[in-house]
Amino acid sequence: MGKGKEMGGTLSAGMEPVASKAMDAKLREIWGKFEKGWMRRELRSVLPPTRIEWMGVKFIVYPRDNFTEFRMWELGRPPEHEATEEIAAMLAGSNAVIVDVGANAGAFGLPILARAGKTARGLFFEPNPVMLQRLNANIGLNEIKNARVFDCAISDAPGRSAMFFPKNGNLGQGRVELSYAGTAEADETIEVEIKTLPDCLRSARVARVDFLKVDVEGLEDKVIVPLLDGDEKLWPGMIYFEVEHQGSWDLPLLGRLAECGYDEVKSFGKNRLYRRAK
């Protein structure tokens, strides 16, 4: 594995002061004066962290370097809000075990966990140190006690890998093992630890998984297939993941889902929700 360019600045920055309500209101007023174009791009590049609330969960969002958080600031909800709302309704009040691989700032998994029952559990995986810091901050902001956070990436074998980031400045698109530009030298990278999902579930003493969400920008197969190749007791009741990157997959993910009794329940744009027949 070649050495990539080490991420500086953004990935080494600490938590920033959060904008006041008055400052946020003024920035939104200025934002509304411009159509799409360079002025909005320039303004977005200096937007400070801001407090918002969505689905009853409080967040501090950083609009300038993460597309999901930007949408939360701009529209009051994340891009995958429809799926989040529907899955949260399915698991509402239940004693669910919720696993979120590629948790980002928690916009998907935290509202689902918050709607689940008091004895529900959430396991969140986020290897990007900046997003990990934001995820932990949002968990603390809501005083969530039933969440466990893993600071590792997930793949089909343990080890270490470069985590690659595209040039568009979106910290939510970090991924391991797959370079965006085709060569490690062309990407900005950090090094992260990799574990397998079955190993992590065993270490957390998880006896079952009710819902698994995977957002890993092209390694969906290496997250899900090892789980389906192992103990059937850990096969998730529902699995939600992005299919756009299936051209990068090495393992027969869709075939294994069919073999294990999963049916596609619904398509949410580039993402699909599968449920295992009981």
TrEMBL record:
<dbReference type="InterPro" id="IPR029063">
    <property type="entry name" value="SAM-dependent_MTases_sf"/>
</dbReference>
<dbReference type="InterPro" id="IPR052514">
    <property type="entry name" value="SAM-dependent_MTase"/>
</dbReference>
<keyword id="KW-0489">Methyltransferase</keyword>
<dbReference type="GO" id="GO:0032259">
    <property type="term" value="P:methylation"/>
</dbReference>
<dbReference type="Pfam" id="PF05050">
    <property type="entry name" value="Methyltransf_21"/>
</dbReference>
<dbReference type="InterPro" id="IPR006342">
    <property type="entry name" value="FkbM_mtfrase"/>
</dbReference>
<protein>
    <submittedName>
        <fullName>FkbM family methyltransferase</fullName>
    </submittedName>
</protein>
<dbReference type="GO" id="GO:0008168">
    <property type="term" value="F:methyltransferase activity"/>
</dbReference>
<keyword id="KW-0808">Transferase</keyword>
<feature type="domain" description="Methyltransferase FkbM">
    <location>
        <begin position="100"/>
        <end position="262"/>
    </location>
</feature>
